[in-house]
Model the fold of this input.
Amino acid sequence: MTSWLSIAPFFYGAVFFVLAVVLPQAALADDGAAVTLYGLIDLGVGSTHVSGTGTRNGLINGGLADSVWGLRGQDDLGSGWRALFQLETGFNPSNGQVDDQNGRLFNYQSWVGFAHDDYGRLTFGRQYTIGQTFGNELEQAGWKEMGLGATFKASDNFQFDNLVNYVSPSVAGWTLGVGYSFDAAKPDGYATSANSRAFSAGLKYEQGPWLAVATWDQMRLGNTVDTQAQPRALQLGLAYDFEIAKVAVGWTRQSHGYVGLNGSDPDDLGVAVGPRAFADGGHADAWYLGVTVPVGKDSIVLQWSPMRPSWTWEDGHRARSAQLGTVGYIHELSPRTRLYGFVGYASHYTLDNQFDPDGSHTTRVMAGLQHSF
Done:
């Protein structure tokens, strides 16, 4: 059998040939088709301290937003219809590696679909859920592991395989979205009882300075995991741009585990929905307040999110309330390049295990550079 290492040089050579030769020609085509190469590189240096564990210093990928590169395009089909696609890869600029443990080249997005201004957009493949897409718009700054998604985990940076999404056109500012994943946990599954299936729906209002979102997510875990939990999440949020400051508020209830399969798995349930006490009947409420104050072209960003879990640990102690707060500054060097820095603090909450029964505290200080192309 031919090994991956033996064919890798030829594979990547073909990829670079497409990027360097084929894509520029496609982008200039006059048959209604267009392809765009885009990307974002975000890297900084930081220090993270967890009480009782120690301090880690070094480079941190994606301090403000994940580093990605991708291809997107469309083809005019006539009568207002368009065929669309997007391929996107997350990577770590500190070592050049693709940011995916499963070895997928396009680990962030890989989808194709149709769109019409009057009927909406229908897409198929690996992509973000409706709840993630709509809810994430409340976030003021995506500070590494300390943004909105750290506590509103249905809005965290995750994607599902085998996902079908429909997003309606905007009518008087209102947009509806629904989505269903036939197998959210692996890339080659079918709709059987062994697969984890996911449903996501959302309603968004965006008009002038107003933004309002409401989302609902439900996960049905496959029978191969060690819990009968069916994680679900409700998110509500409102934002208004006062010009002198943009303010966003939100609330979420996450029940029976994390719907994004993006939590920890401290009790070896076989799926990253959080601790057993959470998955088997618990819920967690979280609130969010975000404020962005413009300073010329720059901005000061403050975010605060208190959390209250409902469950009791196996030793009889009730899970403690937690909170996460950040303050940061974003300096616009140009339309494509930013400098930024932030300080974050989480109490009774760690970045790896979320609600920590040991009551750990986490502090992070970071400064970085972001460039988009």
Remarks:
- The chain has three helices and 20 strands.
